[in-house]
Amino acid sequence: MTATVAVVIPNRNDSEHLVACLDSVLNQDSPPDQIIVVDDQSTDNSVSIIRERIAGMAGAELVINPVCMGTMGALNRGLDQVTSDY
Q1: For residue 22, what is the DSSP state?
Q2: Exposed/middle/buried for 58, CB within 10 Å: 0-12, 13-18, 19+?
Q3: Which residue among 10, 14, 51, 84 is the one 20 to 30 A from 41 at the CA level?
Q4: Which of 33, 21, 39, 26 is nearest to 58 (CA)?
Q5: Across the beta sheet with 60-64, what order do the strands follow?
Q6: What residues contact residue 33 under an 8 Å CB cut-off, 6+ apart?
Q7: CA 13 to chain centre
Q8: pLDDT given at position 1
Q9: Counting beta carbons within 10 angstroms of the beta carbon of residue 2, is it exposed (0 to 12), middle (13 to 18) or buried (19 or more)?
């Protein structure tokens, strides 16, 4: 049995780098089985970029925090969503 891998990406107002970040993860020789992007109450266009980039991708999920939780809070919220082995 092959182990499954998840990548959790916390984000807050980092739309300038989101495309490069997501493409970096998606273009790996062995892409992850699960990608969870947690938006931490961004006020820029991050959410629309995330939705556009992960649309139709199996195992990709956008989580939007109801309040700003900070980087570690967003990361922990994403980790709570992981169902992969690693």
Answers
A1: H
A2: exposed
A3: 84
A4: 33
A5: 6-11, 34-39, 60-64
A6: 4, 5, 6, 59, 84
A7: 14
A8: 81
A9: exposed
Cα(15)–Cα(35) distance, integer angstroms: 17
6-52: pLDDT as tens digits: 999 999 999 999 999 999 998 999 989 999 999 999 999 999 999 99
Angle at 16 between CA 78 and CA 49, to 5 degrees: 60
Torsion angle defined by CA atoms of residues 46, 11, 4 and 34, in that order, rounded to the nearest 10 degrees: -20
Take residue 50 and report the two structure tokens written for it. Answer: 């995330």
Q: Two tokens at 2?
A: 């092959």
Q: For residue 75, give both structure tokens.
A: 């990361």
Which two tokens mark 77? 């919220």
